[in-house]
Amino acid sequence: GAGNLSQLLSQQELLQWFDPRPIGFSSLTSYRSSGDWRQLATVYGALDDFSYALDGSYVSQHGQEINDWLERTDYSLQLKQRVNARDEVYFQAGFAESDSGDVARHYDPAQAHRGLRVSEEQSPNLVAGWHRAWSPANHTLLLASRWRDDFTLRDPEMSVFHVQPDVAGAARISMPAGGYGAKFASDFTLYSLELQQLWQSERQTVIAGGRLHSGQVESSGTL
Length: 223
Prior knowledge:
nine-stranded antiparallel β-sheet; two-stranded antiparallel ribbon
């Protein structure tokens, strides 16, 4: 509990990590003449045996090539409560949303997909944890989580290779101009449960544990 729960403050070296306070605020803003914008902000604090942090970030990039743009928003809430001298619980909820064009790097900028659109949303990602200190050298950690991701890709002019015989009857590979309209969608949900036991002595540390994953992916593609 020496530090705070923010996942953004590690990027700012001058922050006072070991100075608990009821509430603190930090913000980092960067802007480029090309129009790119980056904003990070966090509200954090500690009250007796309770600590919290609310992180938020926004990134907007106009890019340097054709259809090379990106816009992303992230939010994350972290909470930790000490129940008694041996037990403490942890909770985290996160949200992320992004939209972009063709952000891949092309040797020839003319190869960029002008109509490509990629969207992704994670809402919400949930994490719950429990820590039990049986003694200063004996600890148990339990972590349960749920992750969800909704991904969609649309390209109105996707190039597709064709194999067809030439005049002599031999196979020939070609890529006709114009392309096809394509859409790919994926809905992913994962549940995870992890248990760890830690023993420490003067010369050895032993960590034993296991993790169980269960998930489902539903995807579809249209050409």
